[in-house]
Amino acid sequence: MQADIVSQVEDLSTRIRKVRAAIGRTIFGQDDVIDQTLIALLSGGHALLVGVPGLGKSRLVETIGTVLGLGTKRVQFTPDLMPADIVGSEVLDETDGRRSFRFLRGPVFCQLLMADEINRASPRTQSALLQAMQEGRVSIGGVEHKLDAPFHVLATQNPIEQEGTYPLPEAQLDRFLLQIDVGYPDEKQERAMLHATTGAHDVQAEPEPGYSAERLMNDRALVRQVPVPPDVVDAILALVRGGRPETPDNPNKLIGRFVAWGPGPRAAQALMLAVRARALLQGRICPSTEDVYRLAHPVLRHRMALNFAARAEGIVLNDLIDRLAEPWRPIAPR
């Protein structure tokens, strides 16, 4: 049985390398973002991409959908967007003199939903995604409709322009397996981007399908079979519980002083899946405590909130997460 899993991991590693290479030919300078997004998908979760405009977040989602062979739809979230615009609605049909209601499926019925600028929609519309993200189905007129499988939401958000936006409620933020911060590319990658996209002929590679929805479902099942060593489980529990101000005798006194609320059990579940996916992404059969350290920020940053005292003293959440994850920081080679 173990030999069979090892063989499957090797096959997955080969496939993922090809997927990453295909995405990298279209998306420049975002290797960490690509890896974290693939980790979220292999874990069966959703991801929130946060970054300033112009960094290719929407292009990334489109490219990943094409390369993975997933049915992708895009919703541009705006203040006037209604829940029915996402999940669908019932319309009255008349056939042969008989009237009946017919359900028109909304864009949520897809395998990869790109929710662009999700914080620009009203809370009522944002809540329409909650059941879909958590349960994989929606309820219309008292009737439940199952969504396509696999179903993933990759949402984007602009962290700077907050006027006229509606911050996502904590309950919905917790539904995202990872919050992926999208930064600027380095100079070398930005130079390559300029040459590829601004000439007389756009030489930027168009993505081509190299995967399938069925394959992704199989690989998601494989992720859950990966064994997690006891020391990694201990690290996950220590990290998540250490981020809660309510934890008795918390050794990190700054948490109790500056954190309003900390990560719940879903954060530990997210880490447990994500460390497995990261290990497989790198061709390893077993996750390590370094995986816990590398994924601490994307798992915790949207599941913790600072209190007024922290904001008054200029405390940054990333610094607190660094302190929490410090015991598992890999030792740099000399």
How would you describe this structure to a colleague?
- The structure is a single chain.
- With 334 residues, the protein is of the alpha/beta class.
- Helix content is 45%, strand content 17%.
- It contains 14 helices and eleven strands.
- A five-stranded parallel β-sheet has the order 2-5-8-1-9. Strands 3-4 form a two-stranded antiparallel ribbon. A two-stranded antiparallel sheet has the order 6-7.
- A hairpin with a 2-residue loop joins strand 6 (137-140) and strand 7.
A few lines on this structure:
This protein has 334 residues and is an alpha/beta fold. The protein has 14 helices and 11 strands. The chain folds into 2 domains: 218 residues, P-loop containing nucleotide triphosphate hydrolases (Rossmann fold), CATH 3.40.50.300; 109 residues, Magnesium chelatase subunit I, C-Terminal domain (Helicase, Ruva Protein, domain 3).
Which helices and strands appear, and what pairs or packs with what?
Blueprint: H1 2-24, H2 31-42, E1 46-50, H3 57-67, E2 72-76, H4 84-87, E3 88-95, E4 98-105, E5 112-116, H5 123-135, E6 137-140, E7 143-146, E8 152-157, H6 170-173, E9 176-181, H7 187-197, H8 213-223, H9 230-242, H10 253-258, E10 259-261, H11 265-281, H12 289-300, E11 305-306, H13 308-312, H14 317-325
Q: What is the share of helical residues?
A: 40-55%
* CATH-derived architecture of the largest domain: 3-Layer(aba) Sandwich
DSSP, total strands: 11
**Average pLDDT number:** 86
Q: Pick out the low-confidence regions.
A: none
Secondary structure category: alpha/beta
Number of domains: 2
Roughly how many Å apart are the termini? Answer: 39 Å
SSE series: HHEHEHEEEHEEEHEHHHHEHHEHH
CATH top level class name of the largest domain = Alpha Beta
Could you give a short account of the major beta sheet? 5 strands, parallel
Continuous helix count: 14
The CATH superfamily of the largest domain is known as P-loop containing nucleotide triphosphate hydrolases
Strands in their spatial order, largest beta sheet = 2-5-8-1-9
